[in-house]
Design brief:
By secondary structure, this protein is an alpha/beta fold. It is built from six helices and nine strands; from the N terminus they run E-H-E-E-H-E-H-E-E-E-E-E-H-H-H. The protein has one domain: Class I glutamine amidotransferase (GATase) domain (Rossmann fold, 3-Layer(aba) Sandwich). A hairpin with a 3-residue loop joins strand 8 and strand 9. The longest helix is centred in the C-terminal third of the chain and has 15 residues.
Length: 233
């Protein structure tokens, strides 16, 4: 893979690139960012080769509280229209969904912690089929879900949330879950989101989340495989 100019959009200080930063450095990519919780500028579309949109506790409709959502959505739309590869994680996947004309809404259950996802029956022929071909445990932290965008391929589901991953035009990938997390980033998310850790079917305790570290390496390896395929285009 040739060195790329990758740009990422970050919504809160405690949800950063995580393992993706390590992957980018290992592959010689240039990484720039727009951090919406600071004074920010967005790059010209021609200045980037690919886009990564991170997560955050806000919702895609919260434009009255976070007015930067308006230019962010327009930027994401323009990057997709420019036919550049895009990865959206959690809130990022929801922003892609809305930009593509589908609806984002509260899921029946919040999913917070380590729970398995499984491939769908229709996700057999796509660039990520060999990577997402079996069930495995991933880290979740979301309360919203979405309808699939028109012409998107439904890739993964979980017991608590039907739409966990989708692919649009083979170059726009939305993931509700967090393959990028490291031990440090999980600790940050737990620290800032403790108020959400209430007893529920798909919400684990703080101790369970922090003690479940055995999946981190495998998740990061999956993340690397996905990035290698997505940004090789």
């Amino acid at each position: 893979m040739k060195p790329l100019r990758l740009h990422y959009l970050q919504h809160v200080p405690f949800e950063d690139l995580g393992y993706i930063q390590e992957w980018a450095l290992q592959n010689g990519h240039t990484v720039t960012s727009t951090k919406f919780y600071e004074s920010f500028t967005l790059p010209e579309i021609t200045e980037i080769d690919g886009l990564i949109i991170m997560g955050g506790p806000m919702g895609v409709q919260d434009e009255d509280k976070y007015d930067w959502l308006i230019p962010e959505k327009q930027f994401v739309k323009e990057v997709i229209q420019a036919q550049k590869p895009v990865l959206g994680i959690c809130l990022g996947s929801q922003l892609i969904t809305e930009v593509l004309g589908a609806t984002v809404f509260p899921n029946q259950e919040k999913e917070i912690g380590w729970f398995p996802i499984s491939p769908t029956e229709i996700a057999q022929k796509n660039p990520f089929a060999s990577i997402l071909e079996a069930s495995f445990d991933v880290f979740h932290w979301h309360g919203d879900t979405f309808d699939l965008p028109k012409n998107a391929i439904h890739l993964m589901r979980s017991e608590g949330c039907e739409n966990q991953a989708f692919l649009y035009q083979n170059r726009v990938l939305g993931l509700q879950f967090h393959l990028e997390v490291t031990a440090e980033s999980v600790q940050k998310m737990v620290h800032h989101g403790k108020h959400e850790l209430i007893p529920a079917k798909y919400i684990q305790t703080e101790n369970t989340i922090l003690e479940t570290s055995q999946f981190l390496t495998a998740n990061n390896q999956k993340m690397a495989q996905i990035l290698n395929v997505l940004f090789a285009q």
